[in-house]
Amino acid sequence: MKQSLRAKRMARLHRRHKGQPKLNLVSLMDIFTILVFFLLVNSSDVEVLQNNKAIKLPDSIAEKKPDNTLVVMVSSDDIVISGRAITTVKKALAGDDEEITALKKELEYLASRKPYANDIEAKKGRDVTIMGDSSIPYTLLKRIMTTCAQADYRNISLAVSKIANSGETKEAL
Prior knowledge:
With 173 residues, the chain is an alpha/beta fold. 41% of the residues lie in helices and 16% in strands.
């Protein structure tokens, strides 16, 4: 039997729309490529030290970003390295000695586990960041810094909370 023109046209239209819809992956791949590059570029800008709710860092307008070093956390109660309480603040302040023996012992142990790579590094000393509460007394901070220096952690940094520089002058228009 012969089909009419209308029937042929309807059959052709039906065959055309009968197939599975196709997904255009080109635009989807473009979006994911842009997203990956965006995340790669912006992921290296922020470095955050370990956070402890018991420690309120002093405020500063310092511009230098923190390095990834050994962190000595000093709260109002304890001195902590790598999540392990080393000694209490009361014990550290009780002695007449300028160094804290428990802290020195722990720092020497950590230093023995990671030897120097070269002579330049040995001359410079090891890196340490002291993350101390803003309410700790200066004598305790001085004893911690002295202990770190005697344990060959001579490159000492102090952690602070960055605030906006309020002393900036504004230009008049």
